Amino acid sequence: MTKEFSGFPHRTGLHRKFRLTAIVFSLAMLGYFTASSAGLGRKDAPAKRPGGSAIPVSTAAALRGDISVYLDGLGTVTPLQSVTVRSRVDGELVAIHFSEGQPVKKGELLAEIDPRPFQTQLAQAEGQLARDQALLENSRADLQRYQTLLQQDSIASQQVTGQAALVKQHQAAVAVDQGQIAAIKLQLSYCRITSPVSGRAGLRLVDPGNIVRANDAGGLVVISQVQPIAAVFTLPEDKLPAVMAQLRGNQTVTTDAYDRSGSNRLAVGKLLAVDNQIDPATGTVKLKAVFPNDDGTLFANQFVNVRMNLEPLRGTTIIPASAVQRGSPGDFAYVVAAENKVKLQTLKLGPRDGERIAVLEGLAAGDQVVVEGTDRLREGSVVQVIAADEKLP
């Protein structure tokens, strides 16, 4: 009996040992997963900003006021008048009386051509005139005698008629001589070349001693009127109605000329004219502005940025330009609403004046718009408005 049950105690000990090992393993696995879950939770948890979850931003209030309206265009300075001075007669250029690059006045002597050939022609024509005038006087005297004799019936009427025709012939010869003298005197006056306009002389194109001709293409010098001076520039065709409305009201459109960088103002003038057609290839229209240019800042063919100052837009909503954002909705701004939550508000913008921009639709005066910290905002974000002199984190 004792031998039959000797194996039971041995199997019971093994079973208890197995159960104890399983419990220990289960507890170890439970601790591992608990620790892992806690570590993952700490890694994925969002970091909180100091002082709470609100995003710090700077804001500005939308204001009601007036804003200047500017239209900018690219242009080129052009003289109001530019003349290539050429000789009107053939001859030797004997003298130059202007200084290159210096101002000249209308009628001022610029150059001289040798006048002696024309003076000789004039002397010959004057001699011919004197001879024909003498013949005319003699024929008139004869005609007067013939008419007296005809009244006395001492001469044939045919002879009187022939003498009258001779008088007319001599009168015609005198008229031809006088016309020839006038033409030679005109040619002689062309030997003194004067400036047709007031302006600035360019570089000399011909030196004294050369033979110049009336059909020379190059000319002697180019005179450009630079006081006043003009600038021709272009504007998009959709900007033209605003300009024409002001011109129809007989209002002066102030125009400023800036240098290539657009930072330095060179001159102040006014709009002179608008072209009568739009370029279909570019959709732009040409305009011309005139500047006094008393200090000679503007030069012909100089590149300028032209800015026109139109009638200001009055009583409109104005915000800082930095508050305007651009994205898929178009132009928008973040507006601080109730409970310091921001709202994405789409805008219809108007003209811009430096760091200010007009809002035609979308905002009202007094609305608080975000000007700094917009890169971290979304619709409904909670913000903390900080003072302008504080720095964003």
Query: Fraction of residues in helices?
Result: 25-40%
Could you say which structural class the secondary elements and strand pairing correspond to?
alpha+beta
> Globular, elongated, flat, extended or rod-shaped: what is the shape?
elongated
Instruction: Return the string of H and E elements.
Output: HEEEEEEHHEEEEEHEEEEEEEEEEE
Helices, by number, come to 4
Largest sheet: 6 strands, antiparallel, barrel
Low-confidence stretches: 1-12, 33-51
Oligomer: single chain
Task: Round the Cα radius of gyration to an integer and report it.
Answer: 49 Å
Distance between the termini: 89 Å
Strand order of the largest sheet: 2-11-14-13-12-15
Tell me, rounded to a whole number, the average pLDDT.
85
In total, how many beta strands? 22
Q: What fraction of residues sit in β-strands?
A: 35-45%
Description:
With 393 residues, this protein is α+β, with helices and mostly antiparallel strands. It has 4 helices and 22 strands. It has helices spanning 8-44, 116-151, 157-189, 240-248, and strands at residues 55-61, 63-79, 82-85, 91-96, 103-104, 109-113, 192-194, 199-201, 211-212, 221-224, 229-236, 254-258, 265-279, 284-291, 303-320, 325-327, 330-336, 342-346, 348-353, 356-361, 368-372, 383-385. The strands form 5 sheets. The protein has a 6-stranded antiparallel β-barrel. Helix 2 packs antiparallel against helix 3. The protein is elongated and about 175 Å long. The two termini are 89 Å apart. Residues 1-12 and 33-51 have low confidence and may be disordered.
Q: Concise description?
A:
By secondary structure, the protein is α+β, with helices and mostly antiparallel strands. It has helices spanning 8-44, 116-151, 157-189, 240-248; strands at 55-61, 63-79, 82-85, 91-96, 103-104, 109-113, 192-194, 199-201, 211-212, 221-224, 229-236, 254-258, 265-279, 284-291, 303-320, 325-327, 330-336, 342-346, 348-353, 356-361, 368-372, 383-385. It is elongated.
